[in-house]
Amino acid sequence: MTRRTVLMAAGAGPLTSGLTATASGTGAAAGSDVLVVVEKSGHAVGFYDVSSGRLSRRVALPQYPHEMVVDSRRRYAYVGHYGVRMSASVGEGGSAVFVIDLAERSLVRTIDTRPFNRIHGMGIDDRDRLYALSEEKAVLLGFDTPATDQAPTRAVPAHGLKTHLFALSRDGERAFVTGLLSHTVSLVRPHDASVPPLVVTPGQLPESSCLSRDERTLYVGARRSSALVAVDARTMKVVRSRTVDGDPLRVYTVDDERLLVTDIVGRTLTLYSTTLRRIRSLRLEGIPAAVSFHPHRPLAYVSQLDTDSVAVVDLDRFSVVGGFDTGPEPDSSALLPSAA
């Protein structure tokens, strides 16, 4: 995919460069899907009309926002203020969660999380309770009513060092927190700090993880070990591991049978079975970071850090079928499907 080439997304129409749009646009055309993208080095959240690739609105934020989640009604997005460019960056970072009104496409509130700083991992459960992870303090914060909360309503120790990301059970009762410096994944109970954690070392530099659809297995990418690891989500014992190519930055559950892994060294996406059998790889133009998925169609939206673009990937054909330019260093994203 070249950055200014018009490409066709499966059933989505032509996708063109987002750089031709203005930040003060009037919004996506009626009936269009919209991709909301955190642009971490652009210090903003961008709204892109997927049918045209055009930027319809950009919401400015303080420096270096990173992770984002969206509530079940698609009313609000919650963005963690990490405040530094990457995990190796030195600095106190940010101490806030930004609340974005997705209908108005504006920043409506900022939740102060001090003294908990370097807010990175974000999660939301099936009751729309919000969770945010302080990397510096190794504490998982909870917000029972994040649309109105002015501060965290709970906090539990994350039981790791440099706690970066977490996977969350649908009911919010279990969180699996990765520690970049402790090389651990900790099972903690966000609503009961009295429950002792279960901790496993799946390999060196575990960063991303995801739960299987039945929530019985946790899949972890151990970056420095170049390994994909399956862990029993109840006992936290490693049940299976395999060596993979490159640097497995992010791991996602696609469906009951498939996982998707981004490799930032090989610039590839790779599909694996849930038994860790390699299925197929796809090389991309840029460095793949975060991925989001269409809720109703087999499409993945892959943020490419170094080309400042999003690639649209058909997961059935496993090929790039579209894409568009974004602001600097796109990271996490969320697809807002059209109402039509």
From TrEMBL:
Gene3D superfamilies: YVTN repeat-like/Quinoprotein amine dehydrogenase
Entries under InterPro entries matching the protein: Haem_d1_sf (IPR011048), Host-pathogen_enzymatic-act (IPR051200), WD40/YVTN_repeat-like_dom_sf (IPR015943)
Keywords from the named record: Signal
Domain of life: Bacteria
Signal peptide stretch: 1-23
Name by which UniProt lists this protein: YncE family protein
High-level lineage: Bacteria, Bacillati, Actinomycetota, Actinomycetes, Kitasatosporales
